Amino acid sequence: MNMRINNDGDDLFHNRLFSYLQKQLAIPIEEIRRIRKQVFSFKSETTDYILKGFPTYPRLKVQEEFITLLKQEGFDKTYSFYQLAKYPPLHFENTFYSCLQYLQPSDDSFTFHKRKNQLEGLDVLDEFHKVTEKFVHHFQQSLPPFKQLEKWNERTAVFLNHLPIIKYYVQKEIINELLVWADWSLKGIQRETHFFTSGKKVILHGDVAHHNFLRTKNNELFLIDFDLISLGFPHSDILQYTNRILPYLRWSFHELVSFDKIRPFLHEKGFLFGLGYPTDIFREWNRAIREKSYLEQGKMQILLEMTVGQFKERQEFFKQIQYLAG
């Protein structure tokens, strides 16, 4: 048995999982490697695959059905599910697993640093929305509706609970202004409810971070990892995408206007209110405190650059959108 195991993994667990797969899969496997929690790559004699875990069998089946419909309707920029189990489902230690196509990554990995990538990611996301609009009705009962206001109210509450720790690292004046931005944004979103509940209904990806775009060896860009899909309207994904690329635009509203697929939304008050919410700062502080990674010097430097280092640029950006929203 040849196994490559990340150092942060549980060797005994990996050995048991490897043995289980050897018995349950219709193909012999040679090695298995942990990528992240409940996601592994494994190798047969000729092909690599991904093994992905799901907390429940219905969640797994929804994903399989969703990917199948995506492919059938013409969206080929994602992976396929493979039925490799002799007796499905694969169920190991309270987790249901499915086998996915392994996409060979390019040496030129996808990041939001390059404008080419920022534009191409928007194109893939736009195509994804157009395709899911065709079959969104099929998932009316199996997918939750996306609720922007509820999500950010919850994120804000967690951030407020973490303030005793955050105050050790960030000046009171900056924290107070972040909270002003959040309050302005949440109240505005509440007033502009119609913007977030109207338009053509699609299936939202829900996590358009750079790591969920994969550039493959043949230079195609794929969209992956659909764990947070929900029912909603395209501007919710576009808002999240815009928030993701803004740090790489140095919080320049002028740069933002140059994106054809974003520009129309900049005339919508609801979208502007959404851009005012410090979602990345709240998200990353909440995660760092939950995982205690704020105690690591490297990760703390990243947090402080996001919170303090970019503060003046963000402050100017906020003033612009506040003026435009009226």
Automatic annotation (TrEMBL):
Residues 124-239 form the Aminoglycoside phosphotransferase domain. InterPro entries: Aminoglycoside_PTrfase, Kinase-like_dom_sf. Keywords: Transferase. The keyword Chloroplast does not apply. Pfam families: APH (PF01636). GO terms for molecular function: transferase activity. This is Phosphotransferase.
